[in-house]
Amino acid sequence: MKKAIILTVGVLFAVVMTACEKNRNEDASILPLLLTGGGSAPVIVPAAGVPGDSETVTAGSETFKMIYANNQTSITFPTTTTDDHTATLTRRFYVGETEVTNALFAVVLQWARINDRVVEIAGAHNEVNEYTVKYGSKDLININSLISHPGKISYSPSVDAFSVDSGYENHPVVNVSWYGAVMFCNWLTEMNDGGTANLVYSGIDTTWDYLETIEDASRTGYRLPSFREWEYAARYRGTDSVNTVPGYANPYFTRGNSASGATTYTTDITGAPDYAGKLANDLVAVYGLYWNGSTWIDKGTTGTAAVKSLGNASANTLGLYDMSGNVWEWTSTPQGVHFIVPGGGWSGFSTHLRVGYLYTLAPALTDSGGAVGFRFARSK
Known about the structure:
The protein is an alpha+beta fold.
């Protein structure tokens, strides 16, 4: 059964954010997106003071929370699975509490359709039909597909509306390309800020290519987190020193060989048959296989779970859910011709859950086996 999501046009929420610092430092091995300067008028954003503070935002029929992740103009933290490198962030920012859900994605798609950002014209660069949504001739999301793990969003030309399979409204959206995640961020910004002044991404035209995409993360619109922002948010431990990297305090940071917020590393087999690694992973992540010391054991996970499905205790110190597991998450950071997608997914090995681990995928990928989605960020 499908649940139709019809959006009432109009600005439903406004927030205040001031312009923020310029781009963070990154490891030299990670190629940055093109960045441009240029100011923007401040938008209205909720005040936030310390990491972990949250603000509730309304978009159409949906609400979501933004978590204040970093309130410092310069902070250095450990990186990689062995914690032997560092990165420094110089921007204050928010991160979405959860991965983007089917319901929220459908609401934004409906806004785009109502406002003619996508049209029912065969062959148009921004065509929408019952199989796909395009912009710049790039597939943004594979909908109503026949692949092994199809998404749960559909479009009906007869009623001009997007819908979500009943029961999957709060599951993370999947089969979204990097292009789809970027366009979602721009559309959500325009939808909620009431204009285009704070759009982070430009260079998007009728023949869109990721190499042409310009990111101005000093603007306060919605955007993808950089990989280092994502890793910082996944590692952040505040005053909790359990399973953290030596040499750091207040905040402490989870070790790179562990899932976000976990109390030990992902393949820890002490305490068999109640493997410590599996027990720790199970508390914070939806994933596929664990290590028993000699082989990988399939947990029998068959698909995504609703965000926050493991309960309040599964959030990391910042209050972020599913940073490890459920679905891999697109970031804004390219690596060669691919983009970095950290976090691991519902079908993967527990080693994919490690906060210091990175994986890469082609930006046009939409047939992801139902295991790739995203969460968004916003500069302060």
